[in-house]
Amino acid sequence: MLQLPDIHQQWPFPVTFNRWEATISAESTAWIESIGILSVERLKKFKGANFGGLASIAYAPFTDADQYRITCDMVNLLFVFDDLTDELSAQDVRDIAKISLDALSDWKTPRPHGEHPVGEMHRSLSERLHSVTNPQILDKFIANYDKYLKAVISEAEDRDAKTIRSSLESYLALRRETGAVTCCFNLLLIPLEIPDHILRDPRIVYLETLGLDMVCVGNDILSFNVEHARGDTHNAVIVVMHERGLCIQDAMDFVGAWYREKVEQFCNAMRDLPPCRSVAVRNAVRTYVAGVANWVTANYEWSLRSGRYFPAGHDPIGMDWIVPLIPRMKHELHQE
After folding, report:
1. Which SUPFAM superfamilies does this UniProt record tie to the protein (predicted)?
2. Which of 7, 63, 119, 134 supports an S-S bond with 99, CB 3.0-4.6 Å?
3. Would you say domain 20-312 falls under CATH 1.10.600.10?
4. What is the pTM of this model?
């Protein structure tokens, strides 16, 4: 058995949902289906995971349907892309990444006949993204997406070599990029007008990093059981096990305590925002950092209830956070 940490016991931010969820989520799911990138079996699993529910909490305040649609599309695309690349070699990921970035950057050009559907998926996303946001946000988004793709290649290289990152810090340097969470934070800016000098302020950057770490490591904690069972190594708990020579439970306890420290730091950072010269900008900044908090909440709530990590009837909250440990497949691993 495995005792999971109750990482949100002191998390003060409530769950809210976007009013467009039912309509837009259905449209976005139909879009993914139309791309033809998923097999019948994978499409069934995709629909069952309810990624629209994640987007609904993460982007709850969005009132414009077209702006909200791009956030749903992005969340759906990321999970499709993640599942696709998890099974590819590093070279195959490089090929897929090149197609993806090209399609994202050049959305006006039709994709070549016979190309992997990942190209059209990114081109189509980019076409809608260009219709709802400004050039400054687009530039941030594409630059951060490029970093994401490079990180996914690095993850695949680790996977090919059966390598585990040597330390939590080394792991986090990669993990902060492999989730594309920074790109998702960029989308929070679409309805807002915040000067670049405010977004570059160390206090905002610090808060973003805390939110980023909680989204990534929170997912690692709640997905650990299934990832460990199938031999994945890109997980904070697994890295800590090898770095510190700990058993599974002690490593999970360590990462849980680390996460709760981040919760406290994040709450303190929310009270130390940069000064703004106008009420409008001040309100926009507050909306943005609340959006970062929404992302942390969304990741936690969706990870618990989507069925992707916990089967029906195995809600860890109802089981006092004690879950059966899934037997692990045998893999030969190497330290970085």
Report:
1. Terpenoid synthases (SSF48576)
2. 119
3. yes
4. 0.94
